[in-house]
Specification:
Blueprint lengths: L6 E7 L2 E6 L8 E6 L3 E4 L20 E4 L4 E5 H9 L3 E3 L1
Antiparallel strand pairs: 1-2, 1-4, 3-6, 3-7, 4-5
Length: about 90
């Protein structure tokens, strides 16, 4: 039996939650995206370090803002969630 989607809020855009399906996180796969609108990323418990953070994790409960118009390497699942929601494009 296939496992269903496991959406986790990994950030917000304009106060709107961005849900990332963490069923297959793809922590070793960095995917570059161009952010269309400022993305405020959070650090849910157990979420791996994003490639864009260059090895520095966001403190649990903390945030980091990925600025509009900039290119960032994010985890595959998170990058896909942003692109699917229309908040980023693949670089």
């Amino acid at each position: 039996m296939a496992e269903g989607a496991r959406p986790v809020q990994c950030g917000t855009v304009g106060g709107i939650p961005v849900l990332t399906d963490v069923t297959n996180l793809g922590s070793s796969v960095a995917v570059k995206v161009v952010i269309g609108t400022d993305y405020v990323a959070t650090s849910p418990p157990g979420f791996p370090v994003r490639p864009a953070n260059t090895g520095t994790a966001i403190a649990e409960g903390g945030t980091v803002t990925f600025s509009a118009g900039q290119t960032y390497a994010l985890l595959s699942a998170e990058a896909t969630a942003l692109v699917n929601a229309g908040y980023a494009t693949f670089a």
